[in-house]
Amino acid sequence: MSVQERKERERAARERLIVATARELAEQQGWDAVTTRRLAERIEYSQPVLYSHFRGKREIIGAVALEGATEMAGALRAATSAADGPRTRVTALARTYLEFAARNPAVYDAMFELDGGLAFANEDTPQPLKDAFAALLESLGEVAGDGVHPALFTEVFWAALHGLATLTRAGRLPPQDTEPRVELLVDRLAMV
Amino acid sequence: MSVQERKERERAARERLIVATARELAEQQGWDAVTTRRLAERIEYSQPVLYSHFRGKREIIGAVALEGATEMAGALRAATSAADGPRTRVTALARTYLEFAARNPAVYDAMFELDGGLAFANEDTPQPLKDAFAALLESLGEVAGDGVHPALFTEVFWAALHGLATLTRAGRLPPQDTEPRVELLVDRLAMV
DNA sequence: CTTGATTGTCTAGCGATGCTAGGATCAAAC
DNA sequence: GTTTGATCCTAGCATCGCTAGACAATCAAG
Fold first, then answer.
1. What is the pLDDT of residues A122-171, one digit of tens each?
2. Which residues of chain B have a pLDDT value below 50?
């Protein structure tokens, strides 16, 4: 009994190590540098060990994405709960979202740019993802305006943030004007 | 003289063939399926020929992106010039943008999701890209509203469209509500 | 304590990938 | 007719994700 429990603990610890190492490597050198060989070397096991935890590289990306979703939901809730008034809440939410994307580019990629094999926008979407969307909905729903479905409004606002985040990071938008863009977005979209 | 001219013509034709084939293959089976071997086989030349035209796969993606930018600019201008009144123009622009992204996913990826080795948002940005942004600016600038810089407004509106396009295509947003999202976006952002 | 089976892990290798070196071929130039 | 130079291809490198099969460690049964 106890022996088996210890083994399960160690196995779970190794799985966390894999995910944490993949994330770290991706943040340091980009996801292209996260090869199964390099990852195996860093955790000091051979390649096939990775495949005893995950079906493949995709699932590892997916695991990082879920971790990121949980963190992002937490960051968003922390920021919005510290602000009072719907308007300041939405501004704080937008800033926090963009800052999260800018500070954790690899995690953001895992969540939204890469294929992590996760389901989206349907019933078997993993809980962390649903929860991250819920965190957005909580603050954005209250400024949707009359006659506008909160979920629809959240989708549009989220899409705008996502566009700003990705285009900025890819060099398609000059990074220095982020703040006025956020202000414009909140000004126009949020029905205070 | 004439011999050399013929050769140059043939060379240019082959280059166009490469780009067109890459695009076709990408639209049919996705960019992952566009390998140098497959591409070489389809144009009925050996792999190294590709490298006498392009520095590498990245540059081929870049060439498709430029072609796409020209087409998109044309589509946007056609749609907006057929509409009268700033408001309907912006709506037409938004619909056309999203439709272009949905109907040419591989080209859209080449332009905005993949690394085509192109410069953005600075002085040595290729002309087709500048022109596509200009096409956006022409219609969006007139609804920026007082005291809002047209370019800034265009960036934000574009980012929103880009977010909608990519999130929808990646399955992050359910595709059926595209139209109400567009209406909401135009309603709120455009100062009629 | 010795077996035998069950885990766990590793070495080695497969079929791909992007890209390149070096030789063969063929047409233009003298 | 010979030489030269451009053009193209065969063959191969290093690396990728992933897997089969051998090996070693651990455990249950006799």
1. 999 999 999 999 999 999 999 999 999 999 999 999 999 999 999 999 99
2. none
Contact between chains at A159 and B164 (C-beta distance less than 8 A): yes
Q: What is the 3-state secondary structure (H, E, C) of chain A?
A: CHHHHHHHHHHHHHHHHHHHHHHHHHHHHCHHHCCHHHHHHHHCCCHHHHHHHCCCHHHHHHHHHHHHHHHHHHHHHHHHHCCCCHHHHHHHHHHHHHHHHHHCHHHHHHHHHCCCCCCCCCCCCCHHHHHHHHHHHHHHHHHCCCCCCHHHHHHHHHHHHHHHHHHHHCCCCCHHHHHHHHHHHHHHHCCC
| B160 at interface of A, judged by CB pairs closer than 8 A | yes
Tell me the pLDDT tens digit for each residue of B91-112: 999 999 999 999 999 999 999 9
Q: Is the pLDDT of residue A2 over 80?
A: no
- Kindly tell me the sign of the dihedral angle through the C-alpha atoms of B160, B163, B165, B171: negative
Res. A1: pLDDT tops 90: no
Instruction: List the structure tokens of B166.
Output: 């990519």
Question: What pTM does this model have?
Answer: 0.95
Query: Cβ of B188 and A185 within 8 Å?
Result: no
**Residues A21, A29: Cα–Cα separation, whole Å:** 12
Instruction: Provide the CA A70 to C1' C12 distance, Å, integer.
Output: 40
